[in-house]
Amino acid sequence: ERYLAKVKALLHQELSAENGDAASLLQASNGCSKNGAYGSDEDSERAGPDGEEDSAMEMEEAAASSSSSLSVPMPRARKARRSRSNGESKKSPASSRVTRSSGRQPTILSMFSKGSNKRKSEEVNGEVKQEVMSVEKEEEELEEKEQDEKRIKIETKDGSEIKDEITQVKTTTPAKTTPPKCIDCRQYLDDPDLKFFQGDPDDALEEPEMLTDERLSLFDANEDGFESYEDLPQHKVTSFSVYDKRGHLCPFDTGLIERNIELYFSGAVKPIYDDNPCLDGGVRAKKLGPINAWWITGFDGGEKALIGFTTAFADYILMEPSEEYAPIFALMQEKIYMSKIVVEFLQNNRDVSYEDLLNKIETTVPPAGLNFNRFTEDSLLRHAQFVVEQVESYDEAGDSDEPPVLITPCMRDLIKLAGVTLGKRRAVRRQAIRHPTKIDKDKGPTKATTTKLVYLIFDTFFSEQIEKDEKEDDKENAMKRRRCGVCEVCQQPECGKCKACQNMVKFGGSGRSKQACLQRRCPNLAVREADEDEEVDDNIPEMPSPKKMLQGRKKKQNKSRISWVGEPIKSDGKKDYYQRVCIDSETLEVGDCVSVSPDDPTKPLYLARVTAMWEDSSGQMFHAHWFCPGSDTVLGATSDPLELFLVDECEDMQLSYIHGKVKVIYKAPSENWSMEGGLDMEIKMVEDDGRTYFYQMWYDQEYARFESPPKTQPTEDNKYKFCMSCTRLDEVRHKEIPKVAEPLEEGDGKMFYAMATKNGVQYRVGDGVYLLPEAFSFSVKPASPAKRPKKEAVDEELHPEHYRKYSEYIKGSNLDAPDPYRVGRIKEIFCNIRSNGKPNEADIKLRICKFYRPENTHKSMKASYHADINLLYWSDEETTVDFRAVQGRCTVVYGEDLTESIQDYSAGGLDRFYFLEAYNAKTKSFEDPPNHARSSGNKGKGKGKGKGKGKGKSSVSCEPSEQEPAELKLPKLRTLDVFSGCGGLSEGFHQAGVSETLWAIEMWEPAAQAFRLNNPGTTVFTEDCNVLLKLVMSGEKTNSLGQKLPQKGDVEMLCGGPPCQGFSGMNRFNSRTYSKFKNSLVVSFLSYCDYYRPRFFLLENVRNFVSFKRSMVLKLTLRCLVRMGYQCTFGVLQVG
Q1: Are 29 and 98 in contact (CB under 8 A)?
Q2: What is its EC number (predicted)?
Q3: Least packed by Cβ within 10 Å: which of 40, 343, 773, 1053?
């Protein structure tokens, strides 16, 4: 009330200000006393350290109240500029007062006249009611134009000192707003340190044009040195600047490239041999890129660490930055050289402590040209994330027998002190810290939709790309820490020698400690455990020493108590067969499964089924049909440790080798198997009690095939000693033995036959056969391949990099390709007669007619380049070969006798050849084939040019043995093609006549439209496969467009080729987020298979799919299919 009254009085005086009494008005308007203090006398007395601020606050409240009651516009509160001295970004309001010595003070009305009339007031019952209006936001341009702060100089009483004091006036401030950022480089647009690229000179060239400049060429037009297009050209670039699409200069180490932000660079490009960083001799280039990757090299003890960029066209090694980019580049160089020091130091010093590393860093002199004089511990901790990532990369590139550097005491201390996040890129980490909300909003690529079975198998490998269930996450968080299962250490087998291995059940131990092999400690898990100084042996229970002496090593020498139970069930010569036996008070029967102690105690226990037991002169014996553990198959360490596989291996063993009885359960597929896909089934098939296992497949060790167990049943005669492995092996051996049949006549010490068999295939007189290349030779000697000229002396100064070409090896050279099979036609089948008058049927011979391939003629290999691959030339040359050289049967006909075109004939079946001419090796000429070369059944049907008749014996011998079986008409499989593209894979199945594609999924609209045109009757879904699978799994019948979705039981065949960008050897940067997402689509494809459970499943990809990540993706894929119950195999096909 006191201030309101005072302000009202001042306003009345202001209205009559024409009388010139400005001095008193000035004093009253500021509420100043004569001694220069503000406010009333009471205020002056209590003014202390905060007295000035309290007075200013009261003055503001009075001014606001007066403006409300008098409906006079109020001036806007002004903000001070952001102070750059202390790094704060808050805007503190500045005082609107001036110093006393200025001699002039603005009036209240003049101040009010600057504001906007936005307020209304009304007086009700003598009370003043105010409606507060919002204060207008201060614009950025006005803020930059104001002074930094307004200060008031106040003299002390004696006038000897003058101090500056910032007045603070609390006003109603608007809500805080985030300063705008560049959407590419994420730099603040109002940052005064933000710099723009100044542009390229007029003579700067685009990247493709620059790369063809003769100043950068290592070879001239007459040189023949450049032969390979696999590697990108390498150049150096100086005076470079890196910028985004908007021209902002920005660093390239902040994760922008990893997030697929397009960064470009400009500079002067120089040849790779030029070490001079000046612009002389360089080619000015503009907007090189975008940058696909940046890399560091030079960890070989040299002075400098080389930094490089990779674009789609070339690799560039950085030399010196431009003047405008130098400050940005200098900040990056520190951590790059820091990582070089750490990696090189740890290469030869693996047992050093953190203090030793710190001493090495602090005593290392930085290379000349950097903007700092020495390295410090602060710089090491500041760049620890980057340094640790370099050490991780070093471990990944190391040999399998090298211990990881990451778990050394030095690196563990660094990880702990700096709070390093293992296994994550720094770019993602920084983004999560600065913008946690934006990460949640940025959806990015869709997560892979999976069934539970596929998720449990692939979770470790694609943990960031698979969509997880919250409940599943909670379960996993509560679970014990697990090894990653992906790194090279996790893929190694157990050593069998350490304490942990000796305690495992598989090595004959008790299995109580549950510890991993000491040689298979996961580095990611080891770092976490090492921080807590956990030792693997800490949790191993102490066992009495006498028991340790009795385990493992001397068990073979102990005499077990073995006694037969009951009388022999069968006596076969010298063997008495029994049904039961008692070993150390444990009874075993024929058909039980046992564990067998190996000779080498470091080997795990072998598991086998007892198929027979007997006693003979060798002692008490049993016949073991071995099981194969999953780790010994192609699955390796990805297999289920409790899953076994049947194999065709068996052996006679002594009963004393038996370690104990185990339980092996056969898990047969359920009757409703096809409808159980996608259910939440547990991945464990049996409980792990150390003595229970299961099997569901037979494994072919030669071809890495998983098949259903053979259904060979014993008979009553051999039930007491029936072995499935022996039966199958006998059948295979019986088929492999060559045999002759249908004898014809005897003459000249030979017995002739009409037929011979081998591997279940019949060969008759007149059949075409494949023979090994060494089975016979041709009369025309093959032209020797052109030899490369020997290495000549090279001028090292002119070609300084020539020493790198240390061999003449050419990858994939045609000279290294094996020769194809020889082709012949059987003329006679015979065996030589022994001295006892009986034919030697163990030595079968064939008399054949040779066929020439185009490359076997005098035209050499060049003739095959222009000829059909199925074209042969008839020859009257004959030779005798061993029947063991025969590799298969084929069909050879005279082209003129065909009733269909040659193309249709060749495409109508496998192993089909034809000839149109005969080749005379003596005259090196091509002639018409003789009449007897034609099939007798087809004579006269074609345009045969030969005349005359062949002899009866020849005609008979050349008749085809049998007609080809008629094609079976089978119903076509209802097919779903995922990642269909334009339909190439489906078209192949259509031409084979085995499938009918009813559904296809292709996300790219142009390819989907092409598929619709190629297959009008197919339902094509132009959506993300993960979204469609989620719809089907949730029970939806149609998608958003109303298209009917296939349901369980509808799909009989599933085929597809998941995107190969992440696996392809052509992609140098397959570890980026985009490539990882593409790789995770394999998981989605397998989830389709698990949900629909089709009869047939085919996955196609590039050759690197087999070797990618140490074959982990292939192994996990097979692991999924085997767990689903599929018979499966894989192969690398020749598709060129």
Answers
A1: no
A2: 2.1.1.37
A3: 773
Average pLDDT of the segment spanning 1059-1066: 61
Nearest CA to 690 out of 505, 834, 856, 535 is that of 505
For 943, other C-beta atoms within 10 Å of its C-beta total: 7
| 849 and 744 part of one domain | yes
Pairing of strands 925-927, 912-920: antiparallel
Q: What angle do CA 212, 806, 272 make, to 5 degrees?
A: 30
What pLDDT sits at residue 526? 58
Question: Where does residue 209 rank: exposed (0-12), middle (13-18), buried (19+ CB within 10 A)?
Answer: exposed
Q: How far is CA 249 from the centre of its chain?
A: 32
SS3 label, residue 140: helix
322 within 8 A of 241, measured Cβ to Cβ: yes
Q: What is the pLDDT of residues 252-281, one digit of tens each?
A: 988 899 888 999 999 999 999 998 999 988
265 CB-contact burial (10 Å; exposed 0-12 / middle 13-18 / buried 19+):
buried
Question: Which run of H or E residues covers position 470?
Answer: helix 470-478
Strand partners, 288: 265
Nearest alpha-carbon partner for 321 in 335, 336, 332: 332
- Give the tens place of pLDDT for each residue, 785-834: 555 555 667 888 888 887 777 666 676 676 777 889 999 999 999 999 98
* pTM of the full structure: 0.54
Residue 384's pLDDT is 87
Tell me whether residue 478 is in a domain. no
Q: Which are the catalytic amino acids? A: 1060
Question: 10 Å Cβ neighbour count for 919?
Answer: 28
715 and 743 both lie in a single domain: no
Count how many domains the chain has. Answer: 3
Task: Please report whether residue 213 resides in a domain.
Answer: no
Reported confidence tier of residue 94, pLDDT bands at 50, 70, 90: very low
- Backbone CA torsion sign across 1070, 1072, 1075, 1076: positive
The domain containing residue 696 runs over which residues?
Answer: 560-727
Q: How far apart are CA 702 and CA 396, in angstroms?
A: 31
User: What does each C-alpha distance from 705 to 700, 1087, 1104 come to in angstroms?
Assistant: 5, 22, 20
pLDDT > 70? residue 648:
yes
Residue 542 within any structural domain of the chain: no
Q: What are residue 220's phi and psi, to 5 degrees? A: -100, -175
Residue keyed to tokens 């360089």? 282
Q: Are 1087 and 1097 in contact (CB under 8 A)?
A: no
Neighbouring C-beta atoms of residue 239, cutoff 10 Å = 20
**Burial, 307: exposed, middle or buried (Cβ in 10 Å; 0-12, 13-18, 19+)?**
buried
Q: How many residues does the chain have?
A: 1136
471 three-class SS: helix
**What DSSP element (H or E) covers 29?**
helix 22-30
CB 360 within 8 A of CB 341: yes
Nearest CA-CA partner of 628 in 588, 664, 682, 667: 664
Strands 705-707 and 692-700: antiparallel
- Exposed/middle/buried for residue 1117 (C-beta within 10 Å: 0-12, 13-18, 19+): buried
The pLDDT of residue 1018 is: 94
CA dihedral of 696, 701, 703, 708, whole degrees rounded to 10: -20
| Burial class for 975, CB neighbours closer than 10 Å (0-12, 13-18, 19+) | buried
User: Would 50 be classed as within a structural domain?
Assistant: yes
- The 8-class DSSP code of residue 972 comes to P
Helix (H) or strand (E) holding 377: helix 377-382
For residue 23, the one-letter residue type is A
The whole-number pLDDT of residue 42 equals 42
What is the spatial distance between Cα 263 and Cα 250, in angstroms, rounded to a whole number? 9
Lowest mean pLDDT among 127-141, 189-203, 762-776: 127-141
CATH number of the domain bearing residue 947: 2.30.30.490
Q: Bridge partners of 615? A: 576, 620
More confident residue, 882 or 366: 882
Task: Tell whether 53 and 74 lie within a shared domain.
Answer: yes
Reading the block at residue 601, the tokens are: 């105690």
Predicted local distance difference test score (pLDDT) of residue 1136: 59
